[in-house]
Amino acid sequence: MQMMWKQRPVWPPGPPIPPIPPRKPVRILAVSDEESKFIWEHFDPELFRGVDLILSCGDLKASYLSYLVTMIPAPLLYVYGNHDGAYDRNPPLGCQCIDGAVTEFQGIRIAGLGGCMGDDPANPYQFTEEKMEKRVRKLQSDLRRSRKLDILVTHAPAAGVGDTSAFHQGFRCFHQLYRDNVPTLHLFGHLHRQNHHGPEARQGVFQVGATRAVNCTGYRLIEL
Ligand SMILES: [Fe+2]
Asked: How far apart are CA 152 and CA 100, in angstroms?
């Protein structure tokens, strides 16, 4: 006996789906390590018009960060540098700490890891490679639902990405984040740009695979 197959119904084509508009670029002011006289003493609002987000990579006075959020109508997210112990008593007002956390801004996923290489027990913002690796693993478990990271904000650089002396040594475990979570941008500070070797490196911009690592000492204006 010949089997008769039921014909599948043909669904009418629905209304056309409008294309998803491309995301508007986010303008970021990234700051680190040196309070810029250009900003603090000679602030020109025109130059910072259109800034959507301020990111601090650490080692800046709390009053400077509070000043930035007062002058620029944008949220400020920060991590600790190794000299920011005073934030505990006098935190930057109107700013949000993202140290050890993952957050989102306008669909951009941002994670923060402050502190630098060291093992001074009196300084809670110094970490050995092993301790920082634990923090990276914790961050990666928080990121597991969506592993892609847009911006990684740290105080110290990754090992071999513009780091110098033992004290200004970068963390090897940050390469784990480069490899697994592929941040588009890695913003860091801790080193003065003139400490980088070679004219290109002195620009403080390094390409590591798909990640652009940028030394934000002073300030940087970046679009993403
Ligand atoms: Fe530092």
From this structure: 11
